[in-house]
Predict the structure.
Amino acid sequence: MSKVAIMTDSTAYIPEHIRNEKNIVMIPLNVIFGNESYKEEVELNKDDFYEMVGKGGALPKTSQPSIGELADTLERLSKNYDEAIMITLSSGISGTYQSALSAADMVEGIKFHVFDSEISCAPQAFYTYKAVDMAKEGANATEIMEKLNSIKERGIPAYFVVDDLNHLHRGGRMNAAQLLVGNLLQIKPVLHFQDKRIVPFEKIRTKKKAISRIHQLMEQSVKPDESFKVSVIHAQREEEAKEIAADIQGRYPNAVVSVDYFGPVIGTHLGEGSIGITWMKN
């Protein structure tokens, strides 16, 4: 029986105690403020990140893990595992997937498979948990990769409501005219992943209406008595996320609902105050 290690990067935002419990290997991305570089979820947590961004100025840059770091990790894993699978954030917003592919050619003694989630955050964690469960049950890497690809073909809906248009403007994703009009009209963009990138889905007046629209999309996707996983993701809005999660739990008694967070790398894209809702059928 092949022994399979499961890896993911830091943007799955899987808490450390769960990573330890499930034996998930996490590879951090980098967040760069000026001349200082920090490893996400290792040297820079979400609270410190949002505090640093809140002081104004230019947004940080982000970068993928080094090929050397990935190769070193694989070398270490090769002593106890026959195969490894790494689930990465979307290749459309990061070079992590390509770095992992490059590292695969550098290490002998372990078969390395790289899965492009084409998304990030909690949906990326959903893929990772599925891979862990299958590996624990004795599935080999080929079987796990086939299952992950079948889930991707079916799709994991994920929608994000951006609270602060000024943040999008600072990040270069909205020009001054769009910012002015958006603020005057109280526009709250709903974003989603399409073709591996974060793009607008709809522009909606007020955050409350935007959240209601996502509820409507969920209602179109799942039945009230259906069993599925849901994550409410937040950027420093934990109480708001908990209220939304409780509401979803009330509507869908058989759903497993969690509250998760946008860490530094994805927080750089979306900004503080953002809320995301994603779900995956079992």
Summary: The longest strand covers residues 197-205.
